[in-house]
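Shipment paperwork, digital attachment
Item: protein structure file
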Amino acid sequence: MPETVAILLAAGESRRMGELKALLPWQGQTLISHQVSALIDGGVDRVVVVLGHRYEELRPELDGKSHVEWTLNPDYLHGKTTSIKAGLTALGGRAPELLLLLNVDQPRSTETVKDLLQQHRSNGSLITIPTFEGKGGHPVAFDGALLGELEGIREETQGIREVVRRHKEGTLRVELGAEEVLWDLNTPEQYRAALERSG
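Attachment content:
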């Protein structure tokens, strides 16, 4: 049966934040729990969470959650592409119909996930990038046919950007009207600003 899978990247060190971003409070739960719930409630069939730095502290946040699994990236210090590849490897060779890529420090609502999946499916594009006022954001949706190319990404060629550049013609940039598609919580200031905007 065709499957929609999200890879949620949560392996980083959170150096600029000064504390583990995945455990920051967000709408009554931790950021990592919020992200998993938003993805599942938004229509994703399975979430693969890639852990690395201090993974023992994050595992309890995922235990017992249905449609959620985690994998460990021992090479997380070598860049984000290693975490994407670890998540793809965890798929076990089963190519999903649709693949979403999202970082744990990019909080998104259920509605945004739903909108992106609907736009991707209705337009039949290879890649769908959500935008706000013309600026590209996340999560990015990929057709399962691109799995092999995603498995070959390299840090030196900017990871998934190389795949997007290669398929410019098949990439849809869609305005969702949601500022949150641009949120990226790297610093305490960015976290506080996003908290205020999220209400």
